[in-house]
Amino acid sequence: MERDSTDLRLRAIGERIRQLRVERGYSSYENFAFDNGLPRVGYGRHEKGANLTMASLLRILDIHGVTLREFFSGLDI
Length: 77
Known about the structure:
Elements: H1 8-23, H2 29-35, H3 40-47, H4 54-64, H5 68-72
Helix pairs in contact: 2-3
């Protein structure tokens, strides 16, 4: 299977990252990235399921205080 930004699993992960941001009251990914010291453009790509490394995901989860188990719970990927 080819893995790229169109991979549905990556999109689901990006959507879950976006949901966490919105739950914290941020309508703008740019403001969230700025407030948390994350690269704005890179974070925007993460929410689309692109350019996401495990290190980036772990950093985002740490900001939200969410474990890997909690993050992936409910994701059907």
